[in-house]
Amino acid sequence: MGNKIPNIKDLYACLQCGYCRSICPVYRETGWESLTPRGKVYWLKQLSAKSLLDKLLGRKIEITDEWMQKLFTCTLCCRCESLCHVDIKFHEFWEDARKWLVENGYGPPTAAKDMYENIKNPEFKNPFMEPTAKRDEWYKDDYDLPAKAEVVFFPGCMTSFYEYQVLLNMLKIMSKAKIDFTTLGSDEMCCGAINLMTGQFDNFKEIATYNVGQLEKRGARTVVTGCPGCLRALKKYSKYVGKSNFEVLHTTQMIDRMITEGQLEFSKDFKKKSLPIVYHDPCELGRISELEGKGIFEEPRRILNSIPGVEEVLDYPNNRMNSECCGGGGGLKAVDYELTTKITARKVDEGIELEANTIVSSCPNCKAQISIGVEAKKDEYKAKGEKFKMKVMDIADVVAKSI
Amino acid sequence: MKGNSEIKKGEEKKNGDTIPKKSHSELYELLAGIVDESNISDDVIERRLYSHDVAPLPKMMEMGFKMLPDVVVRPNSASDVSRIIKLAIKEDIPVVPRGGASWALGGAVPVLGGILLDMTTMNKIIKIDEENLTVTVEPGITWNDLKDKLHKKGYLIGAYPSSAPAATVGGWINTGGVGVGSYKYGGVDRQVVALEMVLPRGEIVTFGTSSIKSSLRMDNLTPFFAGSEGTLGIITRITLRIYPSPEEIRPVSYVFPSVKDMCEAIFEITRSDVLPLHISFFDKNHFIYLKNMGKDLPEITAMVNLALEGSSSSLDVEEAICDRIMQRHNGEKQSKEFSEHEWEERFFEMRIKRLGPTIVLSEALIPVSRLHEMIKRSQRIIKKMGLTAAVTGMISDRNTVAFMPYCLTDERKLRSMMTMSFTKKIGDAAFKLGGRPVGLGIFFAANIKKLHGHGADVMKNIKSAMDPNDIVNPGKLTEGMTRFGIPIPAFGMNMGMDMMATMARLPGMKIKLKMKEKSHAAE
Questions:
Q1: Size of interface A-B (CB pairs under 8 A)
Q2: Interval B343-363: pLDDT, tens
Q3: For the domain A110-260, what is the CATH code?
Q4: ipTM of the predicted structure?
Q5: Are residues A337 and B351, on separate chains, in Cβ contact within 8 Å?
Q6: A282 Cα to chain B: minimum distance (Å)
Q7: In chain A, what residues touch B357 (CB-CB under 8 Å)?
Q8: Which of A155, A371, B77, B316 to pair with A223, CA 20 to 30 A apart?
Q9: Residue B350: its chain A contacts at CB < 8 A?
Q10: Each residue's pLDDT tens digit in chain B (523 positions)?
Q11: Nearest chain A CA: its distance from B102 CA (Å)
């Protein structure tokens, strides 16, 4: 084994109390110790303390392919950190552990490797093998965006290629508010969040250098993104390429500012039959951002509450720092798709229990994932001969509908 | 598929990754005839994760005990459990039940390998009976989960362990626990009104009644199984008492200038009209360690946390009585925020582990009247052995203290083994003061003779009458046993522990943990 296992102090500090088990979405759906935070920590500790004694006692302490897969079987929602008895910083711990594995020649899972290669490939510059030209083809004919602007909107791969409705709505909002903005168009490259979460750190600096270069070329003073994954990655760029000239904001922060400064006026009521709304805190925007400095919890709620026709915004029973993952995080989809749908089903069920008619989040991954859950629920009801309705929206979708 | 790919037969492709075909043990194949394969694992890494509880035991232990189970099974019903036990009898292999594995005495750790039953799959609430004020649950539900779900319906669970987020109902019954709420409502044995068990011959039996209160005679054997450490059968269903939710739970904390004052105040509370839900205490070192971890705390020599429960107006009266008693013994009342924070922290008493990073926990029951003497003796032991240790505990009824000192050490250093004898020494001190150590588990099974004399033989006879094949959790409680089936003689274990305690006192054997703020061993 080459490098030393990271965070050894945490491996020993772990009490094995198992509190993390009780809130781990992966454990909840699978039930095996090997898929719990404490189980993963325990094995890492065994690996770190491997000695001659293990050999003498016939204790097989090794990294198997299966175990590597298990370490990646996690949504990186980091709720474990919120209940950890000994304050392990899991939002760093899991990334470090995956990085360590990859650096030592184990993993990552094939799908994660493929995504890494696709991002590297100049034809794609995104994990999904989509041609670069597709990034802005939704809007380039309708919007005459300037070559340079104060604000650069960085939609991210998920929004650019799949949740383009969110992208179009955000463009609409910024135009309505008369913001001087532009995008990187087809020059945008994946932010590199996937590299960080799958332990493939080696070219993150290159990605950061490229994107910062593109952003600065356009004179960005503010970079705004609707994707919490991009938000966290963009904020980390300065650590790799030095201080840049722009601040990084999430779209909800930007919209919240627009509303308080009177740049945005609402003219239409939110559809009555889609009420009430329940807001889901995306893990990366809320809890993990809080663990990294400042979580974004209130801005999205303030925005929703200012929409005409919306009288009350419901909360999930576990919200803000305790928000439960929708299943779409951590690159788990690439490791065990079926498992993510089980996690999502709970999120939809909870929405039904709350008698909500719309689930709103502020993350394209959450929107995509919860939509999958709603579709599955529709099929389930259909099989029973019943109808099921639940809208899934991003904050930008809600705002755009009311202006 | 339950998301664990290794147990599927044949080679499969999953998101582009090939998972190699696995051959399984004979035992695995036999179990596959009982439960779905997604609920069985013979993977060596998986099994290793089920070979321990919160106590970090040295690898060396495996020379004496086969802690690694041969297979892990997750049953879904009493009938699954019954069939597994019958198979185990036929194959002559032990069955060890496991809940949250949040105990530290090895009750759920195999000593002879065998089939490990992970009971956490059975985690449902079966019925909340509002007419008879009971709740019927499966054993694998955690206390926190149950507590929260009952709270939503307007009910309270009498007592729960301070490890409630992880501890299961079945597990805590088997440790015979006392915990948060026990002062008012009694230990777990007092909460249980009916049990469904799979006995060691495989028969499914129900004890007690879930509707009308049973008297404590032969028609209700439920208390008999509380604290049996899984040696008399597998609990598959439990009916517990519930209580209407109070208007308010009000935590109040008091700080004392000396341990003596604190102990006298506690004693007086136990002789007063107030009946708090919970009473816990901590010594100076506990707070010094917390401060070393960067927690913002005032200077505290000794502290008592009370939680009062009831209607707000009655709590005003109770609080005033407590204030008077505490003041008489120089107790200084803390702010509401501080008290509430302490109450929230009741599940996080082991935060200090980070300092060790190893923590050795001990537990003993002692009379309330001897608390001060017990603390003095413990502090002497701590000083003599040169340990980094603190004293905490809770009052479990008007006469009993659940005394829970802990000791910080570093398992990476071989000499940290010596600190295991700390638990033994605390147990000895408890015996001397008319108390006893709690929980026998693997290491202190030898104490049963000391506790009960010839009574221990009766217990052994009960065990062998019920479990003639010694199938269910062998090597625990009534008889400590090594992997070779040789029982650990009581005097041997005790002598070994005493030797370690002596060695710990030798120069160079003391483990010094780096701390900014120094702790004080004695008052």
A1: 133
A2: 999 999 899 999 989 888 888
A3: 3.40.50.1860
A4: 0.94
A5: no
A6: 24
A7: 9, 12-13
A8: A371
A9: 15, 17, 85-86
A10: 333 434 334 445 555 565 556 789 999 999 999 999 999 999 999 999 999 999 888 888 888 889 999 999 999 999 999 999 999 999 999 999 999 999 888 889 999 999 999 999 999 999 999 999 999 999 999 999 999 999 999 999 999 999 999 999 999 999 988 899 999 999 999 999 999 999 999 999 999 887 766 555 556 788 889 989 999 999 999 999 999 999 999 999 999 999 999 999 999 999 999 999 999 999 999 999 999 998 888 889 999 999 999 999 999 999 999 999 999 999 999 999 999 999 999 999 899 999 989 888 888 999 999 999 999 999 999 999 888 999 999 999 999 999 999 999 888 887 777 777 888 889 899 999 999 887 666 666 667 777 788 888 888 899 999 999 999 999 887 765 555 555 555 555 666 666 666 666 666 556 566 676 666 543 3
A11: 5
Asked if A338 is an interface residue toward chain B (Cβ–Cβ < 8 A), one would say yes
**Chain B residues close to A87, C-beta within 8 Å:** 351, 354
Per residue in A180-209, pLDDT (tens digit) is 999 999 999 999 999 999 999 999 999 999
Q: In this structure, is residue B444 part of a structural domain?
A: no
Q: Where are the domains of chain A?
A: 8-103, 110-260, 272-401
- Residue B314 belongs to a domain: yes
Q: What's the pTM? A: 0.93
The answer to whether domain A272-401 has CATH 1.10.287 is no
Question: Which residue in A34, A82, A118, A342 has the most chain B C-beta atoms within 10 A of its own C-beta, making it the best mutation to test that interface?
Answer: A34
Whether residue B431 sits in one domain with residue B338: yes
Interface of B with A in 429-458 (CB under 8 A): none
- B138 in Cβ contact with B127 (< 8 Å): no
The CA distance from B363 to B348, in Å, is 17
Q: What is the pLDDT of residues B302-336, one digit of tens each?
A: 999 999 999 999 999 999 999 999 999 999 999 99
Interface list for A 96-115 with B (CB within 8 A): 109-111, 114
